[in-house]
From TrEMBL:
This is Serine/threonine-protein phosphatase. The chain crosses the membrane at residues 6-26. Residues 40-277 form the PPM-type phosphatase domain. The keyword Transmembrane applies. SUPFAM superfamilies: PP2C-like. The keyword Transmembrane helix applies. It comes from Lysinibacillus telephonicus. InterPro entries: PPM-type-like_dom_sf (IPR036457), PPM-type_phosphatase-like_dom (IPR001932).
Amino acid sequence: MFAEQTFTPYIVLLSLICIIFVLFYVRRLVLKPDLQEELLIGNGQTIGKREEQDDYFSTVISEGHTLAVVADGISGLANGRMASTLAVTTFVREFMKLERYIKLQDFFSRAAKQSNEAILKNLSGASGGTTLACAIISYNQLHWGAVGDSIIALYRNGHLVNVNEKHTLSSLLEEQYLAGQITKQQAMENPMRKRLINYLGFEGFKSMEIGEPISLKKGDKIILCTDGVYNSLTELELCEILEKPLSPNDAAEEIINRIDAKRLKHQDNATIIILEKLW
């Protein structure tokens, strides 16, 4: 009886230590994904020579996921600013509903459909629309979806590679050329080759392009930008800035400054988001 009473406090203490150890281990498992995918985020924007800013963007961190989304209200159409703002805010709203452990593929389709419906409702038959590029970084992987000609690109080891396709007539013309239906000259000289064939706010919109997840490595930089960026700077110029030891915010600012310095006569709105994976 005396022996049992003597060892009881030690048993209780040992049990408490075991519980604390288990809780600490579980906490490490829960927090580990966030530590592994820690990111630096930067952005930049210029109105260019336009009368108003039709680009809209946002970055959000929630439940272990990081969202970056950029939209370009279509130039030449009324309500471009409304469309880009509504599309981005819809994607952010749906993103905030996501839980930590969830399949992300359905998110893009759902958010795109809701954005398209909301834009069409607000247009009430008028002209308008927007491109959109969206990236989600989750557990060391890049998940993405895009519609229109805003791009998502991955900068790795000195190379900048586009992740998504541009939904313009030029893409369709290239397919026709490769299939032998038209000549290379016909494809290159078509005056409508930059015309969008899919965007949000389009009556014929069916779906956005959604790609397979891309595994990320230390030092990778994910770039989302509107056509005002890549139509103003060459890939070589972008890589020259991205390879510098700059923070994403400083790199984005230098890219925008480089665009403004060119003083192009018809400079479009330009917006860029840069996300850098630390480890």
